[in-house]
Design brief:
With 483 residues, this protein is mainly alpha-helical. The chain is built from 18 helices and 4 strands. The protein has one domain. The two termini are 14 Å apart.
Length: 483
């Protein structure tokens, strides 16, 4: 079902959400002269956008003197429980073990910021017009980074377009640029760059698969972003490709009453496989050229060499044992978020290469159980929405976000996936869009069956009936509409 036409206008809140995603995708790290052991203190543009959102909301309440109509948001209870338990366990760790309270507070605030992104998007997007504009912004931000990646390939040099010089305690970009491949416009970290391109490819594929008349150009865009994910030099890019295939098959097999099945399960799976095979073909034929230009890219091909996985696992397992012992020594409450680990080689750091072990070491069994409960509730939420939704607009973002969620769950076995900033900001942004899209669909379906019915907590603007306005649409919009 294609979007129903509304007046082509954009509210201030929708504009703010558009700016928020552009900041997530394009913002550089801005280091501040604040010393934290083994960690740089950086802020990003999206941090300031979120702050402005919060200050604007408070000012509106104080000056306007009105009560905001906030819709009912799912997952509030598990998210609230996770934040509350995390703060409580960090306080206990600080009082009993003397862990760094400053580091723990910063980590808690960053996690809370992810949830704030989710709430802002879920609350502020209330119309199909706004949803369409956000979808265009996602493609635009991905293409901007893609163009920058192509420029790096043509010039033979990995670099950032937006770069803020750091002090000696800031993030050292040169190390990432020397070891890995292409970057984003404002981010050089290999894992976040790899995940970002992979997640945008998910969005492209899902837009094509779940839309009634998706353009084949969307498949080409998905393959393009999948190739860029591989060119970061991260072996996990292969895992991201596989995750999308298996997550898509799972959705189609589990929810056979979905509109995707009505168009033929085998046909849709074939489209996904063709896109992935094209991606693999491009990678294989360009291997020598790419490795010659970017020697660091060759590390991604090592996954096919004998013994690579065993060696990688052995290196990580040595650290996992020491990190796990921290959780066992503090079984109930953990050692506190942001604790530094001592690795087998004598060095120290905060990276565990397994987020589940990290959660147990930092927050004990209580924090680990609450975290697993949150993941279970998120999965349950996806199942309900995907089964009940009918509109293409809801299917697109639900399919995408579910695949992103599974990708993070799988990647967390070898990476601190739920800690890395950009992948989590994108995930929770998509989560907010999923909630908004489903609420918009439910309200529209309710008003179509009974014009006097409005879903509880919905924005009254959804009820308004406007005349269709004919306008000349740009080519990019026609492509998204499948024309």
């Amino acid at each position: 079902m294609i979007f129903m036409r509304e007046k082509n206008k954009i509210s201030l809140s929708t504009l703010g959400i558009c700016v928020l995603f552009l900041a997530i995708a394009l913002s550089p790290r801005i280091p501040l002269p604040i010393y934290i052991p083994n960690r740089a203190f950086d802020i990003r543009i999206e941090d300031l956008v979120i702050l402005l959102f919060c200050l604007g909301g408070i000012l509106y309440l104080l000056v306007g003197g009105t009560v905001l109509s906030i819709p009912s948001i799912p997952l509030i209870k598990p998210i609230g429980a996770y934040c509350y338990v995390g703060l409580l366990l960090n306080l206990i760790a600080f009082l009993s073990h003397g862990t760094s309270g400053f580091r723990a507070v910063l980590y808690n605030l960053k996690e809370i910021e992810y949830f704030v992104i989710f709430l802002l998007v879920a609350v502020c997007i209330n119309t199909e017009t706004a949803l369409r504009k956000i979808y265009k912004i996602i493609f635009f931000a991905g293409l901007m980074n893609g163009i920058w990646a192509v420029f790096q390939m043509l010039t033979g040099k990995s670099d950032l377009l937006f770069y803020v010089p750091a002090s000696d305690v800031g993030f050292v970009y040169s190390k990432s640029l020397a070891r890995y491949g292409i970057t984003m416009i404002g981010e050089a970290g290999a894992f976040p760059v790899c995940a970002f391109y992979a997640f945008i490819s998910y969005f492209s594929y899902s837009y094509y698969l779940t839309k009634s008349h998706g353009s084949r150009l969307l498949v080409s865009m998905g393959v393009f972003f999948s190739v860029l994910s591989f060119l970061t030099g991260q072996k996990i890019s292969f895992v991201f490709m596989g995750v999308y295939i298996f997550a898509t098959i799972f959705l189609l097999r589990s929810y056979k009453n979905s509109n995707a099945i009505a168009r033929g399960k085998l046909k849709i799976i074939r489209k996904v496989l063709v896109g992935i095979l094209l991606c693999a073909f491009v990678i294989v034929i360009s291997r020598d050229y790419v490795v010659k230009m970017y020697p660091a890219i060759g590390r991604a091909f090592h996954i096919f060499e004998r013994g690579t996985i065993q060696r990688s696992f052995a290196v990580r397992a040595g650290a996992w044992g020491d990190i796990l012992s921290i959780g066992l020594d503090n079984f109930l409450t953990g050692g506190g978020k942001g604790a530094l680990y001592v690795y087998p080689d004598g060095s120290s750091g905060e990276e565990s290469h397994n987020y589940y072990i990290k959660v147990f070491a930092d927050s004990g069994i209580f924090g680990f159980v609450v975290f697993i409960w949150l993941l279970f509730r998120i999965k349950k939420f996806f199942g309900y929405v995907y089964k009940d939704s009918v509109f293409d607009s809801t299917k697109i973002i639900t399919h995408t976000t579910f695949c992103v969620f599974i990708a993070l769950v799988v990647a967390s076995t070898v990476q601190d996936a739920f800690k890395t900033v950009i992948p989590n900001e994108v995930f929770w942004f998509f989560m907010g869009l999923t909630v908004s899209a489903y609420r918009i669909e439910k309200n529209k379906r309710a008003t179509q069956s009974n014009p006097r019915v409005l879903m509880p907590g919905a924005c009254p603007r959804i009820m308004s009936v406007t005349k269709s306005v004919k306008r000349k649409r740009p080519l990019f919009e026609k492509v998204l509409q499948g024309e």
